[in-house]
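seq/struct pair 1
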Amino acid sequence: MASKSAAEIVAAARSDEKITTSELITHLFPDFIELHGDHAGTDDAAIVGGLATLNGQPVTVVATNRGTTIEERVETHFGCPTPGGYRKALRLAQQAAKFNRPVLFFVNTPGAYPGQSAEENGQGYAIADNLVKISQLKTPIITVIFGEGGSGGALALACGDAVYMLEDSTYSILSPEGFASILWKDSARADEAAEIMQITPQDLLKKQIIEGIIDEPDDHEQICKNIAEVLTEELAQLKQKTVDTLVQERQNRYRKF
């Protein structure tokens, strides 16, 4: 198969044909039990989290959610979490560490919700708090970016031990349209910006920003099997390390950037 351009991968990452959060959870974690709330009065629908098992191993699963209907997409701000969403994710990750459960993050978000209400309720603080506290948790943490991985909105859920990406996914400081608007005052040059930004899995793997790329065929069930295989192998390696080694290597991983 011919390699895709950065613009083609951006389009595929945003496509309606992309595997959804509900599909991932249904196929990967049929025993998933959802947990709600951030213990501060909110329950952001853009973050879905709970308990499950992977090959008999208890895990905590946290995923961004874009929804599938118009109503769900409006409710989730098209997959852009609010401060309450990040607080929910942190709460579940901390609970997982308390009970020695690995944490599996699944990310498909253009970024954190940029609305006035989010800013008034501490969006920047919530993201920073995740970065600091999740990076210190004494349990294995793996992130899979399966669509868009936009800016701090994605990084707040990708500050663990390993990050993997599906073939048709992106991970970047901002959207190509935003980059083009800032650099050239012309968002129409987004395709050109996407090439310059090096936001594709192949580019990021070369720079050792991610640990690997997961095959993404058209068959969504096969995608889930591929993800499960990678997660199982990675977890087996991480569980061989002491918790102190995990934390130290995790922090070293991000300091090198």
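seq/struct pair 2
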Amino acid sequence: MSPTPAKQKTGHSQNSVAWTEAFPASIVLVSGPENYLGARAIDLIRRKVRERQPDTDTIHLNASAYSAGQLEMHASPSLFGDAKLIEVAQLDQMNDDFLTDALRYVDEPASDVVVVLRHGGGNRGKKLLDAIRKSGAPIIDCQPLKKDADKSAFVAAEFRQARRRADPEAIRALVSAVGSQLADLAAACQQLSSDVEGTITAEAVEKYYGGRVEATAFKVADAALAGRGGQALSMARHALATGVDPVPLVAALAMKVRTVGKVIQANGSTVQLAKDLGMAPWQIEQARRDGRSWTPEGVVRSIQVLAEADAQVKGGGKDPVYAVERAITVISLANRT
């Protein structure tokens, strides 16, 4: 098996490859701090290598505990001419021996060998990273997905890959319920794809994940912002009594209030506001619905009490439960002003 040749002498942007499109090449750099995407990219390369040649020999090296000459030794042709896949971890902690050998290797990579290099971020080995970019080798940038819109796109892609249809409301509910860890989101998509027949709906997500901490927090926040103080307090007390940490409750309230504050006096279309504020269109629409009976003064008052509650639940006060309940009460009453 001959690895797909890297593009030669191209610019950095042309080197970039989405993790979902990762492919074998003489050298592949998987870079960035999002370990889950990095692992998925490497798994995809490994699978494509083995599809071409099932008996490929796989070698694992650690750049931080590397001994001089290992890379050249493992990349050298074997007696039987077997193809090789060399996976090198912890480039962000590489020692000097690895840096020296890898710089030499990038100039003259071996044939019939795929070398996958995993760098978790930072400036360690910058000279090597620059040399890889200059060589035209494919670079897979694995950055954390911080925006809900990006996480929703990730979830939608997972369902498409599983050949399952999911309602937009179900995707949004899953992101809210499961949280920010991509591994958790992927596992939830896999479970729903396996267990739910037909279209995956928000009701199905609620059935499987409605009890998660994040889902509880956002339900409390939704009730408080809608002015349903009694309901919000009841849900919050139940959550706290069953072991839910007060921090995510306050965080959910703060996120909802800040979003309402951004949109209640903003003009423009949903699409334009979403672009200007770095939010998804559905978030703008929901915030506008939440903020119909809100005033700027109510937002300011709520943000102030949330700042106090945040300090209380993070160790600055003796009664974090009271701080959460006071914040919920102020927010639910601010809706009526």
